[in-house]
Structure formats: C-alpha cells, structure tokens
C-alpha cells in the first residue's frame, strides 16, 4: 500500500479506525484546539467523507489536514495500529491534486526540488540575510519586516558557507572499521554545518571511512508531507542512483525526517519504477541514524574526556517514533563522563515545528512548543540535546524568546566535544 | 429560518468562538466510539465555558425546539452522543477546570470536561486517588463518565463511578440549575437525585459541576498472573478467591482466543496452550497484601493453575501489558471491533464464558473475551468486517443471543457501557414493560419536550406524535 498514491490506497487503513478516541490523549494539536476535527479520529472521518464524496475538497477541508504535525503520536497509541500519517499524506495529496497547493508551498517545494536553484538561492540568501533579518547574535536573527513570517520569531542564521562547501568528498582512514556515506540534509547543510563537521570528526576518530557525495540534495520530505509526493519520485530516484553507487556499509543521516525519507518513503515511491525498486529497498536497509550507528559501532569510551554539564534530551518524532531510535541517543549521552543526564517528563512530545507547519501556523506551533519549554526548564539542564535540526530551530526560537539560558546541540556535537572536537 | 436564528442567538450569547457550524467540523461530531451504528449530523456544535452559558444554550434550544446532545470525549460505546435528530451538540471540552481539591473532606470538585486521568494526577500529591478507571481514563471526561456511570478494572473492590459521586450541579431541561448532594458522607435529604443523574446518559440534565469522593492510595500491592488449562478451573479460582474473603483490586480474565491473539501481536512470552489467564492484583496494608497474595496462590494451585508474581515495578508492568494488549491485539485482527459488556453474577462467570464459546461456534464468528471476571463484567469482543453484510447479520444475531444468555443467568445487558441507542430495544427484556414505563415517566417529568439527548435509553418519539 502506498499512501502517496492517494486515498484509494489507504481505504483499508480508514476502515480500521474503531473511533475509540485514544488518540485524543496524545495529539498535541487536539490538546490546543480541543476540536474533534483536529484529532486523528476526526481527520480519518473527514478523509472517509472525502473518499466517499460526502464532502467537497474545500479550502476549509485542506486547512483541517494542514493541522497535523505528522508527529506519529496517535499512531503509537492507537490500539488498532491505524497508520494515521499514511491517511493524512494520502488526503493531502488528494487535496493538492484536486485543488492545487498554495503559492507559498509551491514556491518552497519547487526550490527544494531543483538542487541547483536551492544551492544558488541559499548562497545568495546567506549573503543578503542581514538586509531582511536583524542579527541578535552571531547566529540568531529576527525578521525586520513581516515578510509573511512572524516578526517575533527568531531564526538561526544561514551559515556563510554550507557544509558541502567546507568538506572533502572522501575521508579515508587506515584499516577502516566501517565505510559509510553521509547524507547531510538541507538544514544541516545550510544552517547547522557544525553538526556535519562534528560527525565527520567523530567518525574519523572511530576509524570510519566517510564519503560525502557532492551531488546530494534535499531528501524531499517537505514535499512528501506537503502533498506533493509525485515530484519527489524524481528526487528519490536520483538519491537512490547516487548512493547505491558507493560500496558502503551504511548511509548515515543526521535527522530523523531525512532518515525516514530514505528508509520508509523511497522504497514505496519507487516500488514500481523499473530498475529502482530493489535498489531503493537495499538503500533503505542500509540507511541508519548517526546515533544508532555510533551506538552499534560501538562508541569508544576511551576517547571520551569528561564534560561537566547537565543535559537533557528531546526526542524528535521522526527519529523516535518514526525510526525507532529511542534508547541509543540516551545511552550515548550517558556514556560521556561528567554529564548528568536529566530526562524530560515527556521527551517524546512533539516540539511543534513540523517543518512548514511552523511557517504557516506559527502561533499554534509556538503554543505547542511552550509545553516543551516548561519541561526543559524543570530539568535544570544547561544543554538540550536532540537529533533533528528542525527541532533545534524550534527550540532555539522558544528558548531565545523566553530568555532561557539553555543551549541546543545535536547529540553528535556533545560526543564530538567529549572526543576533543572544538569548533 | 429558525435554525439560522438559533445559531445567531447562540453566537450572541456564547461568542462566535464557541459556536461551530462549518460542515468540516460538524461531520466530526456525528459519531462516537460505538461500532455498527448509524451516524447523525448535528446542525451546530457549541462549546460553553461555564454554567451560565449552558443555561443560555438550553433556553435557546427550548425557544427554537432544537434537541441538545451533551458530549464529553465521545468515547462511549452505546451511541450516547450521536445526534440522531440533528440539533445542538454541547461539547464540554472548555469546561475543564478542577475547581477544588479538599484533602480534609477527601473530595474534589470538578467541571465536567476534566479528563479522569487529570484528576488523578492532580490528587496524587495528596496521596489520594479517584478509583473509577475505565479503559479510557486518559481520554474520557468526568461528565461523560458520571453520565455513563463508568466502571473499570478496579470495580470489584472499589466500586464504580456512582460510588464516588457525592454532589452535582445540573442544568435541567427547563433551564433551571439544580444542585444536589454535597460534601457530606451522609445525606438523605429528599430522593437520591445524585444517583438519578449518575448514569442518566445526558437524557435528564446537563451536568456542569461534580463533587467526587477521593480515597487514600493503598500503600502496597502485589500483582500476579495465573494460567489454567481448563476454563472451568479459572472460573472456580475466581469464585473461591472471593469466597475466601480476598477482594482483589483487579481480577481480570482473558480467554484462549484473546491470549493467542495477544501473544502473536505483542510477543511477551505468554503460554498459548492455556484456556484462560487471570491477572490478579491485591492492594492495601503490606501485611494484609502478603496474606491475601498467599491465599490467592494457594487457591490457584488447588485449581491446577500456575502463578507468577511481579517482583518489581518492571515485572508488574510486563504482567499488566498482557491485559492492556487485549483490546489492541483483538482490534487488529479484523477491521471492525464490536465490544460488548454483558454482565453476570460472579458465580456465573464460567457459564457465561462457556456460552460465549458456543455462540462463537454457532454463528461462525471470531469472539475474544476478556474482562473484569471478579465482578462478572465480561467484554466479549466480536471481530468482523462492517463491509460484509452477511457477516454483520450474524454479528447482530450473536449479540442478541449474548444478551439473552446474560439475562437468563441473572445478569444485565450492560455492566458499564450504558444503553444509549445501541441497546435500547433490549431494555424490556431486562426491565419488563413496567420498568420501561417508570423510565419514561421520569424522563417525561424532567424533560417533557424531549430536548435532552432524545432517542437515548427510552424513546418518547412515538408517544409525542400521537
Ligand atoms: C477502548 C475503550 C475502552 C473502554 N473501557 C471502558 C471501561 O473499562 N469501563 C467503562 O465503564 N467504560 C469504558 N468505555 C466506555 C467510555 O470510555 C466511558 O463510558 C466514558 O466514561 C465516557 O466518557 P466520555 O467523556 O467519552 O463521554 P461521552 O462518550 O462524550 O458521553 C457519554 C454519555 O454521557 C453524556 N454526557 C457527557 N457529558 C455530559 C454532561 N456533562 N452532562 C450530561 N450528560 C453528559 C453523553 O450525552 C453520553 O450519553 C470504553 C470505551 C472505549 C472506546
Ligand atoms: S486511536 Fe486509532 S482507532 Fe482509536 S480513534 Fe484514534 S486513530 Fe481511530
Ligand atoms: S500525527 Fe500528531 S498532530 Fe497529527 S493527528 Fe496524529 S497526534 Fe495529532
């Protein structure tokens, strides 16, 4: 079953919802809005209504389907095991097919889809960002004009040089323990290249040979989640071709959402594409999140020097519920001598970013974030660790606006520091 | 149009933010958790924020003769919230404040939209609990569970919702506000109205405030899992445990079908060659817990069963997983899950279980049974596919037969899920014509215009027309 083929493909999933309402207990959107249409049960009923022709593909209906973080919380609690996000994605695609996408998404998606435009655009934007954004700090900015963005929102600055511009294509090591290919992802590449550098440092310290394929581009997730899955096929195909060309043990991702694209979506998108189906499946099997890879390698404790700090961990939805990487990051964090790990009360609750959701529904996204900020404050941690650059952006925004002192790092940045990496 | 005028009046009195009319929203209030029932589309959904606004809704509804359907979380299993005849769905989601926790009188006062689990979280720091725990504690509202008189896993020892409701504020069909009961343990002033409204399924009034009794959290507990290769042995163990004056907080059974399905879904190492599993938890003072657990172990052994005890919290969680996985595991077998709750006197649990096996065979259906063996409240769960009309016919026949057997064993149509629409036509089987007549008189006295949740429990519609 491929949800990206539209509503017909998820009919079975729709029927499996027994309307028990258990999803109300965990849906962050429902908890803010308290509207039945915002919880999985209601959305599934709406998908059914669209499917059966009880209801029209109105903008109001699209708006209901935009109100989902695809955080998978409902799926993880659902007694019937309904694949809610498949239903949401199929409906979004169906609505986009019938109604078209709003211009802002069209513009964003078309940029992501064309690597060259994205590269050039990001370069220009990195140079010009100070014209439209006010720098609060060397790496934080706030919009000078509304721009269709919330003016209170604080963005991380685009890095002057992207990760791919800073690194070699290949890092050989003598007698490698493993060979891997690194997939950076857009946000790491353009906004947080330090995460990529920390990863390369760690891998080399651990005698892992790394290739960083030059012509990698956006994984396509924003388009998959935005209802534009058709055009992602091309992106999937080029990544499958590119990464299948390397003889490596694993393809590493630094973000759960990118990981899910490789792991869950490429095989489904390409299952019928001659010559690609099997390769996509193989690639999916080899794709692994950096935390899981380091944990299994395993991390060499002899390399770790003590770091005196208190840290907590926010579990990104697509990393935890999506890819099942839950314990590994925590074990890695706890293995650093000197680090006091204080868990969040509710580490797996969505931070509210959900990619373009935070652009289109900023106030709602921010109120969802508030719960996370309270949870963080209560731990007394100095550093919040996480495994997703989008969560990181969201947390940075909230922590800065609330004038909270916590720093946000990717888990690998903590480990790299403990191994002597300094940026 | 009267409807438009009514909506306009609602907007004026409640504010536009509390009046929902978009078709994309209304469709989401046309169902609840009940399987195999027709839906009904409301004309408008309102979300009042306080009692005064509820009164206004009732007055407007009276003026324009629109029915009102109170709705909490919409998790009931009898069609109680389905707006059969259009009109107003009154959702209590915005009346969700805990008004007071009174540790001296051991009471809490809450608005109807408070989630049961939230109340428990709020009273935990005082070392108190609110015991009624339906499978939906994390979603169901206090108002919905009072209106439904919900039970749960701990019913045997701690009773059900009605044993904890001490006082109510109710908006009546004429728009007046009634307060009954209070914080006193003893109260015999007038008829017992608190009990009348508890379990009234939204047909007699709209509950706007609830005073509940809290109890001290038991200091110790022991959790055990027992297996039997004969169903009758399990049934006898249940009866004998209680005969030996041990009242476990939890005494749950799972039949063979359920165990097999749970194991193939959760893979938690359950033996699949058993005819039934019992999950037993005793709680109270440490010495008492120890003595009671020993009695339980002895009785299980005497009935040819084996027993495992949880040594720590992790093992306890593992044992509980088996029971918690029952519904999820069953629900995954087929697309449609029909959850019944026929209830029999405890001494008849074995008869009921055997009858259920027979019924499954007779109608060629897959039925997994689990439930609260200790209080005779079983949940035969029929697994089917709503698209298969022929199969659904067999399902309906089987359900009827389940009710018939339960009543013939001295039991009841529903232990905790309520009558709603789903079981309305079976009511005379249990209550007789006289019983139904009494219900109707009460309904007519309090809601002569049949505005509150019409078509639930009893039907006044035919009489209205004549
Ligand atoms: C998976 C699952 C497991 C369940 N397990 C159990 C169980 O173990 N034990 C059990 O007893 N039940 C169980 N139930 C049934 C259900 O969860 C309970 O009946 C629950 O208490 C209903 O609460 P609610 O807020 O969802 O009420 P709703 O479904 O919204 O309403 C229930 C009834 O109360 C009325 N009502 C709601 N609010 C008010 C109000 N303020 N004033 C007047 N009337 C009102 C409604 O009109 C309706 O008739 C289960 C249901 C599911 C889906
Ligand atoms: S938890 Fe699953 S089955 Fe229950 S209402 Fe939500 S989506 Fe449907
Ligand atoms: S994926 Fe998250 S936001 Fe979307 S319906 Fe499920 S719980 Fe709600």
From TrEMBL, chain A:
According to UniProt, the name of this protein is Glycolate oxidase iron-sulfur subunit
Which positions make up the signal peptide? none
**What are the alphabetically sorted keywords of the record?**
4Fe-4S, Electron transport, Iron, Iron-sulfur, Metal-binding, Repeat, Transport
Write down the EC number.
1.1.99.14
- Which cofactors does this protein require? [4Fe-4S] cluster
Q: Which domain of life is it from?
A: Bacteria
Q: Which organism is it from?
A: Ammonifex thiophilus
What binding details are noted for the cofactor? Answer: Binds 2 [4Fe-4S] clusters.
Cited function: Component of a complex that catalyzes the oxidation of glycolate to glyoxylate.
GO molecular function ontology, one term from the record:
metal ion binding
Report domain 4Fe-4S ferredoxin-type positions. 6-38, 57-88
Catalysed conversion reaction = (R)-lactate + A = pyruvate + AH2; glycolate + A = glyoxylate + AH2
From TrEMBL, chain B:
Give a yes or no for keyword Oxidoreductase in this entry: yes
Q: Which cofactor does this sequence's record say it needs?
A: FAD
**Which UniProt key words apply to this protein?**
FAD, Flavoprotein, Oxidoreductase
Q: Which organism was this protein described from?
A: Ammonifex thiophilus
| Sequence ranges assigned to domain FAD-binding PCMH-type in this UniProt record | 38-217
**Which InterPro entries does the record match to this protein?**
FAD-bd_oxidored_4_C, FAD-bd_PCMH, FAD-bd_PCMH-like_sf, FAD-bd_PCMH_sub2, FAD-linked_Oxase-like_C, FAD-linked_OxidoTrans_Type4, Oxid_FAD_bind_N, Vanillyl_alc_oxidase_C-sub2
- Pfam families attached to this UniProt entry: FAD-oxidase_C (PF02913), FAD_binding_4 (PF01565)
The identity of this protein, by name, is FAD-binding protein
Please give the family membership noted in the entry.
Belongs to the FAD-binding oxidoreductase/transferase type 4 family.
GO molecular-function terms, A-Z: FAD binding; oxidoreductase activity
């Amino acid at each position: 079953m491929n949800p990206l083929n539209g509503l017909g493909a998820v009919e079975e999933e729709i029927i499996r919802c027994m309307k028990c309402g258990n999803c109300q207990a965990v849906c962050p959107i429902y908890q803010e809005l308290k509207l039945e249409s915002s919880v999985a049960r209601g959305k599934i009923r709406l998908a059914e209504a669209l499917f059966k022709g009880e209801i029209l593909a109105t903008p109001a209906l699209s708006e209901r389907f935009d109100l989902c973080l695809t955080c998978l919380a409902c799926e993880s609690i659902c007694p019937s095991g309904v694949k809610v996000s498949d239903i949401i994605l199929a409906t979004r695609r169906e609505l986009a097919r019938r109604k078209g996408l709003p211009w802002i998404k069209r513009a964003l998606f078309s940029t992501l889809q064309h690597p060259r435009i994205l590269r050039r655009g990001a370069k220009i934007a990195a140079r010009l960002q100070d014209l439209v954004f006010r720098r609060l700090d060397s790496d934080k900015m706030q919009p000078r004009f509304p721009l269709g963005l919330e003016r209170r929102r604080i963005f991380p600055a685009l890095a002057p040089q992207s990760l791919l511009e800073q690194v070699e294509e290949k890092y050989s090591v003598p007698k490698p323990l493993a060979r891997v290919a690194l997939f950076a992802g857009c946000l790491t590449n353009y906004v947080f290249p330090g995460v990529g550098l920390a990863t390369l440092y760690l891998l080399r310290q651990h005698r892992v040979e790394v290739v960083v394929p030059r012509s990698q581009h956006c994984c396509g997730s924003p388009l998959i989640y935005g209802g534009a899955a058709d055009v992602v096929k091309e992106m999937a195909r080029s990544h499958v071709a590119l990464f299948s060309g390397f003889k490596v043990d694993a393809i590493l991702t630094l973000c759960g959402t990118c990981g899910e694209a490789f792991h869950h979506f490429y095989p489904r998108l390409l299952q019928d594409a001659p010559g690609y189906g099997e390769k996509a499946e193989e690639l999916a099997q080899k794709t692994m999140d950096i935390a899981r890879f380091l944990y299994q390698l395993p991390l060499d404790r002899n390399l770790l020097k003590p770091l005196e700090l208190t840290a907590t961990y926010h579990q990104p939805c697509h990393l935890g519920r999506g890819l099942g990487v839950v314990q590994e990051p925590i074990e890695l964090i706890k293995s650093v001598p000197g680090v006091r790990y204080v868990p969040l009360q509710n580490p797996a609750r969505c931070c509210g970013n959900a990619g373009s959701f935070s652009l289109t529904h900023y106030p709602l996204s921010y109120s969802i974030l508030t719960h996370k900020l309270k949870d963080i404050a209560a731990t007394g941690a100095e550093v919040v660790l996480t495994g997703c650059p989008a969560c990181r952006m969201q947390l940075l925004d909230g922590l800065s606006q609330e004038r909270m002192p916590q720093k946000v790092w990717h888990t690998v940045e903590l480990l790299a520091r403990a191994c002597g990496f300094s940026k | 149009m009267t409807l438009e005028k009514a909506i306009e009046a609602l907007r004026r009195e409640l504010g536009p933010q509390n009046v929902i009319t978009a078709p994309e929203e209304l469709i989401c209030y046309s169902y609840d958790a009940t399987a195999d029932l027709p839906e009904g589309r409301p004309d408008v959904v309102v979300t009042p924020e306080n009692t005064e606004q509820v009164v206004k809704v009732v007055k407007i509804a009276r003026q324009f003769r629109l029915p009102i359907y109170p709705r909490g979380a919409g998790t009931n299993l009898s069609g109680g919230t389905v707006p059969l005849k259009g009109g107003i769905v009154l959702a209590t989601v915005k009346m969700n404040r805990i008004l007071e926790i009174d540790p001296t009188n051991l009471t809490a006062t809450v608005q109807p939209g408070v989630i049961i689990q939230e109340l428990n979280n709020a009273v935990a720091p005082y070392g108190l609990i609110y015991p009624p725990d339906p499978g939906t504690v994390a979603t169901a509202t206090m108002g919905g569970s009072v209106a439904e008189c919900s039970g749960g896993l701990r019913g045997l020892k701690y009773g059900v919702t009605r044993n904890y409701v001490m006082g109510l504020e109710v908006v009546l069909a004429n728009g007046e506000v009634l307060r009954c009961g209070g914080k006193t343990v003893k109260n015999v002033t007038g008829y017992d109205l608190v009990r009348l409204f508890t379990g009234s399924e939204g047909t007699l009034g709209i509950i706007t405030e609830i005073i509940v009794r809290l109890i001290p959290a038991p200091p110790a507990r022991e959790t055990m899992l027992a297996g039997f290769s004969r169903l009758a042995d399990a049934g006898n163990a249940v009866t004998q445990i209680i005969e030996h004056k041990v009242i476990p907080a939890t005494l749950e059974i799972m039949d063979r079908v359920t165990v097999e399905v749970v194991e193939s879904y959760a893979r938690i190492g359950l033996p699949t060659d058993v005819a039934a599993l019992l999950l037993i938890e005793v709680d109270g003072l440490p010495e008492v817990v120890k003595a009671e657990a020993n009695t339980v172990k002895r009785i299980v052994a005497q009935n040819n069963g084996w027993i495992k005890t949880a040594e720590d919290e992790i093992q306890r969680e593992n044992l509980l997983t088996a029971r918690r996985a029952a519904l999820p595991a069953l629900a995954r077998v087929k697309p449609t899950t029909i959850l019944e709750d026929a209830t029999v006197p405890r001494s008849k649990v074995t008869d009921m279980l055997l009858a259920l096996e027979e019924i499954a065979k007779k109608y060629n259906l897959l039925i997994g049974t689990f439930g609260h063996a200790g209080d005779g409240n079983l949940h035969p769960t029929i697994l089917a596919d709503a698209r298969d009309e022929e199969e659904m016919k067999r399902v309906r026949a089987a359900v009827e037969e389940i009710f018939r057997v339960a009543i013939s064993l001295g039991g009841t149509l529903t232990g905790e899920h309520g009558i709603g629409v789903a079981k309305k036509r079976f009511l005379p089987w249990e209550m007789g014509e006289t019983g139904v007549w009494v219900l109707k008189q009460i309904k007519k006295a309090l809601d002569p215009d049949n505005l509150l949740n019409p078509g639930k429990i009893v039907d006044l519609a035919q009489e209205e027309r004549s």
